[in-house]
Amino acid sequence: MSSSPQPRSATLSVEVGGQVLPVRVRVSPRAVRLTLRYIPRDNCLTVTAPPGVTARFIRGFVSDHADWIGRRLTTAPGRVPFLPGHRIPVAGQDRLITHDPQGRRGITLTETALILTGPVEKPENRVRDYLTRLARQEITACCQSLSPLAEGRVRRITVRDTRSRWGSCSTLGDLSFSWRLVMAPPPVLRYVVAHELAHLAEMNHSPRFWAEVARLMPDHAVPRDWLKRHGSSLHLYG
Questions:
Q1: How far apart are CA 174 and CA 166, in angstroms?
Q2: Which of 26, 50, 155, 200 is the most buried (most CB within 10 A)?
Q3: Where does the record place the YgjP-like metallopeptidase domain (predicted)?
Q4: What is the reported pLDDT for 74?
Q5: Contact 105, 122 (CB under 8 A)
């Protein structure tokens, strides 16, 4: 393969069925061949490539898979807006977004619904803000529950809308989490918190790290598997 510079993802795109899709390229020293994925939440393609692959070779690889891409575009689930009449998961349970114009402005969460009350302006922003606050509350409570067991001190907790990772931990003890975890079943949120707290002791993914995760949350295997299988779907909401 050519030793020319690696392509920048922003410069690559492909047209399929009249739709132009951006192509993000991730170079991995561990990759032995090109792999292609479609990311519905971003409506883009990602290519994982070994070092040394040229942009021209990647364009040809993507073009050769046009039929596969077309099928994925047809079958991929669409985005679900935070608007009345749509269902979204909260704590792993589907809730119907509804609007009750009576009463003071606010949001009520029930077993089956997320109810916007009062005048509705920019409902999508209101729902997103509510879920972010709820996520911060649940994540903070979970950290307070597990952190006494962790081998390290939590300095600060932040909640963001991250796309590349569900959580992160700095060497200073700063933890960051995706607010979208509040839509997942509670054990999944708890697993991600345990995962990041384990990094206070081991800033890696070594066997010792996973032993620390297991110590903090012995039953972490099932929620970890759920996140691998279903986590990407959480980015389709809002």
A1: 14
A2: 200
A3: 39-230
A4: 83
A5: no
Residue 25's domain comprises: 9-75
Q: Which CB contacts under 8 angstroms, 24+ apart, belong to 197-202? A: 197/143, 197/146, 197/147, 197/149, 197/150, 197/152, 197/154, 197/169, 198/150, 199/169, 200/150, 200/151, 200/152, 200/153, 200/154, 200/169, 200/173, 201/150, 201/151, 201/152
pLDDT for residue 5 = 52
Same domain for 33 and 128?
no
Q: Where do the H-state alpha helices sit in 13-114? A: 55-64, 66-75
What share of the chain in percent tops pLDDT 70?
95
Confirm if 175 and 157 have CB atoms less than 8 A apart. yes
Per-residue pLDDT tens over the stretch 61-113: 999 999 999 888 888 778 899 999 999 999 999 999 999 998 788 999 999 99
Angle between helices 186-198 and 207-216 (to 10 degrees): 130
In a domain, 109, yes or no: no
Residue pair 60/7 in contact by the 8 Å Cβ criterion: no
CB atoms closer than 10 angstroms to residue 65 = 19
